[in-house]
Amino acid sequence: MSVKAFKLVPAVEWERLMRDKARISVECIECCGKNLYIGTNDCFIYHFLLEEKISSVGKITFTATKQLHKYLGFKKAVSELKAASALNRLLVLCDNAITLVNMMNLEPVPTGARIKGAVTFTLNENPVNGDPFCVEVCIISVKRRTIQMFMVYEDRVQIVKEVFTPEQPCAVAVDGHYLCLALTTQYIILNYNTGTSQDLFPYCSEEKRPIVKRIGREEFLLAGPGGLGMFATVDGISQRAPVHWSENVIGAALCFPYVVALDDEFITVHSMLDQQLKQTLPFKEGHILQDFEGKVIVATNKGVYILVPLPLERQIQDLLASHRVEEALVLAKGARRNIPKEKFQVMYKRILQQAGFIHFAQLQFLEAKELFRTGQLDVRELISLYPFLLPTSSSFTRSHPPLHEYADLNQLTQGDQEKMTKCKRFLMSYLNEVRSTEVTNGYKEDIDTALLKLYAEANHESLLDLLVSENFCLLTDSAAWLEKHKKYFALGLLYHYNGQDAAALQVGVQIFTKRPLEEQQKTSFNPDDVMNCLNKYSKSLVKYLEYLVLDKKIEKEKYHTHLAVLYLEAVLKSVTIDNCEELTETRTKLRSLLQKSDFYRIHFILDKIRGTDLHMERAILYGKLEEHDKALHILVHELKDFTAAEDYCIWSSESKDLPYKQRLFHMLLSVYLNPVSSGCELVMAAVDLLNNHAAEFDAACVLQLVPDSWSVQLLSPFLTGAMRESIHTKRMTQIALGLAKAENLIYKHDKVKLKGTPIILSDKKLCQLCQSPFSDPAFVRYPDGGMVHTHCAGNRFLNPNLTHHLSNPSSQT
Questions:
Q1: Which residues contact 744 (CB under 8 A, 6 or more apart)?
Q2: Which of 34, 251, 372, 701 could form a disulfide with 289, with the two C-beta atoms 3.0–4.6 Å apart?
Q3: Which InterPro entries does the entry mention (predicted)?
């Protein structure tokens, strides 16, 4: 599709150039700054000064003021002109000789320095010599199959290299040490420093005129077969798709992002970004097309013209006005290299926003959303399309110049209610996504108030979720809107959130006094009834279940399972809409619940997770089922998260004994060292596991598992830790044994002390219980020294005071 990228403007017309010389024609041109040089077929060089003028209406014209002309003294045409501004020299090819002349007075240098035997020549725009006061010139010599490299100074020339080619060269371009050559039958890349060459593709120079043009660092543009403009790097590869130009192309120029081609009848403009033909300009009898420092000049035998590029921003705006969004975005991205960074960023954001509104008007909401977000649209631009959504106190005014052509949603949809409904649904979704991002800083009140109005109007289930969470809804606007739509419960929540509990209570009284009598008689809320009421409001239901499970710690299976399912559904939903922040938060809650709770239905949750990417959650559930091998396989082989595998062993063995913990770590080590799947990554993970958790392993078993090829140095941290743990355990055991022996010794001492005191029993002693004398030597003695018959001690119920004595372990017989 066409784009007006260039305008053809006359620069030097026939009358000013040739006057009455009918047989004189333009053979070559050169432009350096404002200096324009023209070589003619009668061996003259003309020097003009170009002045660009812009009228009040933006029209560009050029005035060429002739400075002087010079006859070179030959009977042949001037073939080529190249300016070397650093030397103030103009290189002129005429009669197979390159002459150095002064750029200002066109006089040859006094030394008469020249290069002889040149068919054609070019300058190296990426010179390998660091001398700023010389230029590198590459010529195709009159010698067969010969290329020569020269250093050209202000008043002398010096040959530095002569290179032989496999075929006769027809055209050449140079970049650094690389020559891009059009030979008789093919194009090649030749490094004249190393002598290495790379064939590009075949081409018959006898049938068509070859084109070899340097377009950038180490990249060339070539006229390929089949009417293709081929791009090639010095490595012999193409990093851009070819452009399709005329079979009869005779010249090419570059004005990024466009390639300009010339044939017998037309000038064609092709985009380097999408390779499409963008503009065609009628131009007959043209035979010269060249670009000079961003200026594209085209010439016939009788005149010189300049292709003036239209500003890229204007081209982009023309494309957007035609609703050609993709082309506009491609051109905008390509314009980055031509525009200062800060200016480009401002321009590109605006273009993205304009493109977003074009897609929005076409009800292409996914594309519009992505462009709005990338372009960092002030979301109030979108809200302002919807009547009455912005708060009355909002100071927002639309961008100028406007981003779109619509007054409001009614004009955009032309009153189509179905389209309006779709647009409102999109705005609800978009505002819900962006309200928690940095994009909304400074106008959260406008966004939340608009979102509340949309929810209330659509009777959306998220209205209550919005009001029970942090929000910035403006009270005055929101209260009137909720009352208008008879959302009294939401109105009460709004008042409560804003600290107006009296107003909230009044709304609540109005709600509850209108309830059925049996509902009013209920004195407390049953959790199951509350959950039934909240089923439509997922966020509120989640918060209520968190209250029951996490705060009240109710150990009821259905609450724990329901909360886990809601977390899981929220995670899967966040994945589909690519909401990273919400996904991370909800997934953390889900993992915490799965790890800490023992009251949910494990198999039920596991069935729901199967087939998803929630591998970590699946590993946790397998751990709950004591299927640790499956859990570790997921963590090691599917997630390749070795840190998570170690953490799994730690939390799974919490409140377990040492053998259980050792068994888990040994299982993980076995997974790492499994010869079927073992690799360098797993081996290093095994080494890290041993070295970081030496205390959790039975060293003797580990030494039997590890490969014999492992060095002692590799496992030195593990061996050191294992030795320390072994020595520590041994010493702690010795300390415990010593303490036990000391305690036993204390008890023995007390026993000896008790035995060392003599006890005298005579017939005069009386039993403290029955007050009868002892008839045999068997008796029971209490710590307080009292003695009783053995049968009296057995009948403790006869004397309640004996309970204290008999419960004392120090009593002896």
A1: none
A2: 251
A3: Clathrin_H-chain/VPS_repeat (IPR000547), CNH_dom (IPR001180), Vam6/VPS39/TRAP1 (IPR032914), VPS39/TGF_beta_rcpt-assoc_1 (IPR019452), VPS39/TGFA1_Znf (IPR019453)
